[in-house]
User: Which sequence fits this backbone?
């Protein structure tokens, strides 16, 4: 297998010398690019993903030390070899502490010496890649769940870190290109099916099977990946062929989802329905798209296989955000209407038209959704959950929970016991 090599030095003649001194492909390397400083190298690494980087240390505006430091977070599998001068010993030691694998005297090194050092450093890549690949395969579902949750919660250090994790998992979707979400939900009717879906094991056989079915259908046409998100909930991220608007693709996505729905019912005996988001153009939009899908899902009436999210009026979106961040408080139509700068009667009418359910029912749905998250944490008491979701009376909480979910809070919690 050919190994990808990137050369970084602020002197053009040095870069040309290194490129010319060795017939690289004869030794299993090919040069994927060159850069004159660390910042340019980082930018290039986003696209070419080198296996190994030959880098100078003293460069401007970004030096080799900072290049190695940032790459440890963003490209942890990439190896570094320092291009050094004879009087650079202290700098080389510092670079080695940061993670460089070895060094080469750039003005005197001979081809056989360069190849020997690179081969020794790259031998560790194969060992590490094998170990990483084995770990990824054993924990793929849990890792995919972790990746999408970090995207939704915007927990990544930067886009490079996210892309590195996507690459490690072998994911094909690119959140820097136009994309949509298809958020799909299973509501099993029988308790045994529900128990299977709600088990603690992140490598649930049903989750794995649903994800595989979805990806097989999507990838016949789109660049896409499907992730487990929550109990009985998956989300597919699908790259679009063209920039938004994407009206011409909605029909095809709906047809693909109909096939997914049919296959899941045929092979797993489960019924799913879905929500199609508006288009997104970067990873920062995924959180709001996911939220809009969840809100649309709460209004599902069983009439459609695939709902389509519609952008809310800004006033209604602001009220929904206020509800999420003040759930433990007493929430009223009067307060919401004040936030939206509307009369109470007009607000109630607009809210139901925009969201699909009444203001009171929406709050109940959000409170129970949050309660479900807390119930899966065994150490949180029912009385504490009531306080957290803004329902003072435990009896009313249990009654509301059973009305919405079909089972009591304690029965729901028991689904997650080992």
Assistant:
């Amino acid at each position: 297998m050919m190994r990808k090599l990137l050369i970084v030095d602020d002197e053009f003649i040095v870069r040309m010398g290194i490129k010319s001194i060795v017939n690289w492909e004869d030794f299993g390397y090919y040069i994927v690019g060159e850069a004159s400083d660390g910042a340019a190298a980082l930018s290039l690494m986003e696209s070419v993903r080198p296996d190994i980087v030959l880098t100078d240390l003293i460069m401007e505006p970004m030096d080799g030390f900072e290049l190695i430091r940032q790459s440890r977070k963003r490209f942890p599998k990439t190896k570094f070899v320092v291009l050094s001068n004879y009087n650079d010993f202290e700098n080389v030691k510092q670079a080695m502490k940061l993670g460089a694998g070895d060094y080469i005297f750039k003005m005197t090194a001979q081809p056989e010496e360069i190849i020997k050092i690179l081969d020794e450093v790259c031998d560790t890549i194969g060992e590490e890649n094998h170990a990483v690949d084995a770990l990824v395969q054993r924990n793929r579902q849990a890792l995919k769940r972790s990746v999408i949750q970090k995207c939704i919660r915007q927990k990544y250090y930067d886009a490079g870190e996210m892309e590195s994790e996507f690459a490690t998992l072998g994911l094909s979707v690119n959140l820097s290109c136009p994309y949509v979400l298809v958020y799909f939900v299973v509501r099993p009717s029988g308790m045994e099916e529900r128990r299977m879906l709600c088990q603690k094991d992140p490598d649930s056989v049903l989750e794995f099977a649903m994800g595989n079915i979805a990806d097989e259908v999507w990838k016949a046409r789109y660049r896409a990946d499907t992730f487990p998100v929550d109990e009985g909930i998956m989300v597919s991220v699908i790259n679009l062929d063209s920039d938004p608007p994407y009206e011409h693709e909605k029909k095809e996505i709906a047809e693909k989802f109909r096939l997914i729905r049919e296959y899941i019912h045929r092979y797993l005996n489960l019924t799913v329905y879905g929500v199609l988001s508006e288009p997104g153009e970067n990873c920062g939009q995924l959180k709001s798209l996911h939220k809009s899908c969840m809100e649309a899902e709460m209004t599902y009436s069983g009439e459609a296989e695939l709902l389509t999210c519609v952008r809310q009026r800004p006033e209604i979106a602001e009220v929904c955000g206020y509800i999420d961040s003040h759930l433990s408080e007493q929430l009223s139509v009067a307060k919401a209407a004040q936030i939206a700068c509307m009369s109470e009667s007009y607000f109630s009418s607009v809210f139901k038209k925009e969201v699909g359910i009444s203001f009171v029912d929406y709050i109940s749905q959000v409170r129970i959704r949050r309660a479900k998250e807390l119930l899966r944490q065994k150490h949180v008491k029912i009385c504490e959950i009531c306080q957290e979701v803004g329902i003072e009376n435990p009896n009313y909480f249990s009654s509301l929970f059973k009305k919405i979910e079909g089972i009591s809070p304690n029965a729901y919690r028991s689904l997650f016991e080992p």
Remarks:
- The chain has 18 helices and ten strands.
